[in-house]
Automatic annotation (TrEMBL):
GO molecular function, one term: sequence-specific DNA binding
Key word rRNA-binding present: no
Domain annotation Sigma-54 factor interaction: ranges: 155-384
Positions where 4-aspartylphosphate occurs in the chain: D65
Keyword Glycoprotein: no
SMART domains attached to this UniProt entry: AAA, REC
Family matches, as Pfam families: AAA_lid_14 (PF25601), HTH_8 (PF02954), Response_reg (PF00072), Sigma54_activat (PF00158)
This protein's name: Sigma-54 dependent transcriptional regulator
Record's keyword terms, sorted: Activator, ATP-binding, DNA-binding, Nucleotide-binding, Phosphoprotein, Transcription, Transcription regulation
Biological processes per GO annotation: phosphorelay signal transduction system; regulation of DNA-templated transcription
Domain Response regulatory: 16-130
Gene source species: Syntrophus aciditrophicus (strain SB)
InterPro entries (alphabetical): AAA+_ATPase, AAA_lid_NorR, CheY-like_superfamily, Homeodomain-like_sf, HTH_Fis, P-loop_NTPase, Sig_transdc_resp-reg_receiver, Sigma_54_int
Length: 472
């Protein structure tokens, strides 16, 4: 990319700008103006088309009108920020109301331009926004470069909380301190443990995982510490335990909260004295092992309920890392979904290209009780079921489909400071629902009535009252 200095700001040419504006004249003026400035422009006339374009291509900047039919500016802003929180968005407002602009800024818009627009102000705002974007990109590239060095492997995350977690991993990896990772099942605790180990000074030695919740208690002790031949019935030869196998490296004690109190004492001794004996053995073995633990439980609560030893808790809770549930990091859902789509499309040799914006929006609102694992499994299933093309809302299982955007955007409906015309809003909402039902049933009123749980006569009366003809 070539860069040049213009009116005190750095302008990066060949950057792409997406414009969403329903006013034809404004749209073409803006396109001409910014084309002349050397930017590559894609201009569309509503929010929905802009969402489609945004999913398909990379745009350094999105400029959107606030009020548009079919996906307004705020909806587009939210969509862009969900897909990529770092993407810069500028709003255009014809209403000059500070309120809507303030709301847009709160939602992450970079700036706003009031209409009627002055060309010099437009170019100034756009150049400023893109200079900022370039600086931001430089920072991200630098950080990504550092991150690559630390080999975060397949672990993705663009949400603020995941960035904080990556920073923590970088810091703690080299420290050799005990780490405990808290998080619901499927949030990526094992991936974090791997990232810590493989970025630590112990990475030439193994990382040995043990799922303390999956191994029966009487076997777990021998799994961890090993046994001598004849230590118990069935111990026909000496066996190394996982602590010994992990010598020089790290041990990942997954679901440590499920460990019995008797074993908790033994693990405490390994941490305090760095020593242990095999079952039935007399020789004391030195343990040079870093402990990385994980649990989905609230260990503090387990301590107060006397299910977990307090002394062990303080020994392992040295560096706690809390992995948020997937539903708490909206920004990651779209990124992870696209990543898994590419991964499975490639491995299963399918031409499944992308998700429609509606499908993504719906996934953003589903609560994902099984977290990233559930998302990964779902996308594998969707790719298997599909031959090619895009994954649409209808392709999603019904438990996810019920979290369609309409429900949510209605929940999120904000009454502006200047108030609303109640009857008009309800009228628009009702009309919208009826039109959608008709579109979904190809205009067949019987089926539309069934879909809405109305009887046919009521539906027909409503259509008449709302002035909806079969053509519409
Ligand atoms: N940030 C992420 N980026 C990419 N893949 C991820 C991410 N987080 C989790 N995964 C994937 O999700 C799946 C579950 O992750 P993982 O096994 O680490 O979760 P967990 O919290 O340890 O689960 P459990 O507690 O059930 O053992 C894995 O296939 C993992 O590769």
């Amino acid at each position: 990319m070539e860069s040049c200095l213009e009116s005190g700001t750095v302008t990066m040419k060949n950057q792409k700008i997406l414009i969403a504006e329903d006013d034809d004249l404004n749209r073409s003026n803006l396109t001409e103006l910014l084309n002349a400035e050397g930017y590559e422009i894609k201009a569309v006339d509503n929010g929905r088309k802009a969402m489609d374009a945004f999913v398909e291509d990379k745009y350094e900047l999105v400029i959107t009108d606030l009020k548009m039919p079919n996906g307004d500016g705020l909806e587009l802003l939210k969509f862009v920020k969900d897909m990529n929180p770092d993407n810069i968005v500028i709003m255009m407002t014809g209403y000059g109301t500070v309120d809507s602009a303030v709301e847009a800024m709160k939602l992450g818009a970079f700036d706003y331009i009031s209409k009627p627009m002055r060309n010099d102000l437009v170019t100034l705002t756009v150049n400023r926004a893109l200079s900022y974007a370039s600086l931001q990109e430089e920072n991200v590239t630098l950080r990504d470069h550092l991150r690559e060095q630390y080999d975060f492997g397949k672990m993705l995350g663009y949400s603020e909380c995941m960035k904080t977690i990556f920073d923590t991993i970088e810091k703690v990896a080299k420290s050799d301190s005990t780490v405990i990772i808290y998080g619901e099942s499927g949030t990526g605790k094992e991936l974090v443990a791997r990232a810590i180990h493989f970025n630590s000074n112990r990475n030439n030695f193994p990382l040995i995982p043990v799922n303390c919740g999956a191994i029966p208690e009487d076997l777990l002790e021998s799994e961890l510490f090993g046994h001598e031949k004849g230590a118990f019935t069935g111990a026909i030869r000496n066996r190394l335990g996982r602590f010994e196998l992990a010598q020089g490296g790290s041990i990942f004690l997954d679901e440590i909260g499920d460990m019995s109190p008797a074993l908790q004492v033994k693990v405490l001794r390994v941490i305090q004295e760095k020593q242990f004996e095999r079952i039935g053995g007399v020789k004391t073995i030195n343990a040079d092992v870093r402990i990385i633990a994980a649990t989905h439980q609230n260990l503090e609560l387990a301590v107060t309920e006397k299910r977990f030893r307090e002394d062990l808790f303080y020994r392992i809770n040295v560096i706690p890392i809390h992995l948020p549930a997937l539903r708490e990091r909206g920004a990651d859902i779209a990124i992870l979904a696209n990543h898994f789509l590419q991964k499975f499309a490639q491995s299963k040799k399918k031409e499944v290209t992308r998700f429609t914006p509606e499908a993504i929006a719906c996934m953003l609102h589903y609560p994902w009780p099984g977290n990233v694992r559930e998302l990964e499994n779902l996308i594998e299933m969707l790719v298997v079921m599909k031959e090619d093309g895009e994954i649409k809302l209808e392709d999603l299982p019904s438990k996810i489909r019920q979290f369609k955007k309409e429900t949510q955007s209605f929940k999120e409906y904000q009454i502006p400071e200047e108030g609303i015309d109640f009857n008009d809003v309800v009228y628009q909402f009702e009309k919208n629902i009826l039109l959608k039902a008709l579109a979904k049933t190809n205009g067949v009123k019987n089926r539309a009535a069934k879909l809405l749980n109305l009887n046919r006569t009521t539906l027909v009366e409503k259509l008449k009252r709302l002035n909806i003809s079969s053509e519409s």
